[in-house]
Amino acid sequence: MSTTAHNPITSALIFHSDAVALGNSVPVCHNPPARVEWAKEGHVTLHFSDQPKQAFQRARGALSISATSDQGQASRLQNLRQEGAYRAIFPRPSTPKLEAVVINTSGGVTGGDIFSIEITAQENAQVALTTQAAERFYRAPDGNAGQITNRLNIGRNAQVYWLPQETILFDGCNIRRKLEVEVDPSGSTLILEPMVFGREASGETIRSCRFQDCVSITSNDEMVYFDRIQLTGDLTSSLARAAVADGARAMASIILVDANAALMLAPCRALLPATAGASLLSNTVLVVRMLARDGFALREALLPLLECLTHNTVPKNWRL
Q1: What is the pLDDT of residues 82-100, one digit of tens each?
Q2: For residues 212, 241, 196 and 93, what is the CA-based torsion angle, rounded to 10 degrees?
Q3: What Rg value do the Cα atoms of the chain yield, rounded?
Q4: Does residue 147 surpass a pLDDT of 90?
Q5: I need a surface site. Which of 78, 94, 163, 197 has the fewest CB within 10 A?
Q6: What is the rounded CA–CA span in Å between residue 276 and residue 298?
Q7: CA distances from residue 109 to 53, 164, 194, 291, 317 in whole angstroms, order as listed
Q8: Which of 52, 36, 50 is nearest to 8 (CA)?
Q9: What is the pLDDT of residue 135?
Q10: pLDDT tens-digit profile of 290-320?
Q11: How far, in Å, CA of 123 to CA of 294, rounded?
């Protein structure tokens, strides 16, 4: 086999055509030729373009929901804006809260995708948000990070429940996620972030990944909660270590910001499994950390806890 450069744009690969006829091995071409021509009998010339490969198509999604309420009245939708792969549906309410279910029509998040959600609860409004199904962070084929930016704005005497279903991490994922919350001192919020590190029943492992997550909560221009984690490398091996997760493949964080948070500490601790703990950061901030064997065990442990913290108003879609 010989290669001849004709110009800076194309090059030619020449091989004997009788190798094809006799079924012998020939060089494998990973990129299709831009042009094929027969140079002379017994030879073929393939011209390859040196132009850069076409970039992968990436998903985009943006969702903005604003709710309002007259004092003593049920919350109602004020504004809705949805773009790209994000959609929201609003089930018939069984409580005064406005319940929203987020749907990612792209099926998951991978490298280069960009998603954002903004929820605004005006004075006296109540919003409970969940997702249609578990979110999936897929392998990033080109190494670029997927970006997710979420924000909650909670007004005077308003309330927001941020209760997505599990996020499943896959081998090779690369994600940067951020949640920013601004809550009025008279408002309240309950935040849940459950994660599953590969599905054991499907034989999934995470030998390489990069996941950055940041949650920040401010009230009256003061930071009341800040948490940043970065998970990289072989997570399956790391989680198997006794000092890390002792083989647990799922975890969750719960943050309650409420004037009565201190009163919820004892009831929460009474419901926790041995692999979880609850603490007060202040009289208004309650934090729960939980590990579980897998996603199913995590959900079993979370449901009674959420029922306690929401006073039995967990969104219907989360219970399915």
Answers
A1: 999 999 999 988 889 999 9
A2: -90
A3: 26
A4: yes
A5: 94
A6: 10
A7: 22, 15, 16, 24, 21
A8: 50
A9: 95
A10: 999 999 999 999 999 999 999 999 998 998 7
A11: 39
pLDDT of residue 30: 45
| 289 token code pair | 């950390």
Q: By the 8 A CB rule, do 147 and 110 touch?
A: no
The tokens describing 44, both together, are 């073929």
pLDDT confidence band for 59 (50 / 70 / 90): very high
pLDDT at 71 over 50: yes
Note whether 200 and 240 are within 8 A (CB): no
Residues in the chain: 320
Longest CA pairwise span in the chain (Å): 89
Q: Label residue 246 left, alpha or beta by phi (over 0 means left) and psi (-120 to 50 means alpha).
A: left
- The structure tokens listed for 164 are 């997505």
* Signed CA dihedral, 261, 262, 267, 269: sign only: positive
Name the amino acid, one letter, at 109: V
- Which tokens in the block code for residue 124? 């006296």
Least confident of 164-178, 189-203, 266-280, 283-297: 189-203
Closest by CA to 253, choosing from 214, 219, 218, is: 214
The DSSP 8-state label assigned to residue 139 in this structure reads: B
The structure tokens listed for 313 are 């108003």
The torsion angles phi and psi of 33, rounded to 5 degrees, stand at -70, 145
Contacts of 40 (CB under 8 A, 6+ apart): none
DSSP string, 102-131: EEETT-SB-TT-EEEEEEEE-TT-EEEEEE
Partners of 2 in the β-ladder? 14
Q: Which two tokens stand for residue 318?
A: 């989360």
Summarize the confidence of residues 152-181 as an average pLDDT. 97
- Whose tokens are 């309002």? That residue is 68
